[in-house]
């Protein structure tokens, strides 16, 4: 897969170096699990900390499907 460039907001979570989209998603999940941000009752929801709130456009909680769409806004080819 071709590397894509995360912007500064997403870069604060996954790093600023270009990486394939799948690798960025993996780093994002590593961050979510390391910080315990997956919702305890509904595992499909992600609770945002301050860094992720910026990525998620200010939302406190998003579904994992919505997360993919929101992250795409912070990636350039």
Secondary-structure topology with pairs:
Layout: E1 3-6, H1 8-14, E2 19-20, H2 21-34, E3 45-47, H3 50-55, E4 61-63, H4 64-72, E5 75-76
Antiparallel strand pairs: 1-2, 1-5, 3-4
Question: What does this molecule look like?
Answer:
This protein is of the alpha+beta class and 77 residues long. 47% of the residues lie in helices and 18% in strands. The protein is built from 4 helices and 5 strands, in the order βαβαβαβαβ. The protein has helices at residues 8-14, 21-34, 50-55, 64-72; strands spanning 3-6, 19-20, 45-47, 61-63, 75-76. The strands form 2 sheets. A 3-stranded antiparallel sheet has the order 2-1-5. The N and C termini lie close together (11 Å). The mean pLDDT is 95.
Q: Low-confidence parts lasting 5 or more residues at pLDDT below 50?
A: none
**Total number of helical segments?**
4
In terms of DSSP E residues, the strand content is: 15-25%
Order of helices and strands: EHEHEHEHE
User: Order of strands across the biggest sheet?
Assistant: 2-1-5
Distance between the termini: 11 Å
How confident is the prediction overall: mean pLDDT? Answer: 95
Structural class by SSE content:
alpha+beta
Tell me about the biggest sheet? 3 strands, antiparallel
CA radius of gyration is 12 Å
3D shape = globular
Care to count the β-strands?
Answer: 5
Give the helix level as a range of percent. Answer: 40-55%
């Amino acid at each position: 897969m071709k590397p894509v460039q995360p912007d500064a907001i997403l870069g604060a979570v996954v790093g600023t170096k270009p990486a394939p989209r799948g690798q960025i998603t993996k780093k994002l999940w590593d961050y979510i699990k390391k910080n315990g941000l997956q919702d305890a009752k509904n595992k499909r929801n992600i609770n945002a900390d301050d860094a992720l709130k910026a990525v998620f456009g200010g939302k406190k909680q998003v579904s994992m499907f919505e997360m993919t769409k929101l992250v795409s806004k912070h990636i350039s080819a």
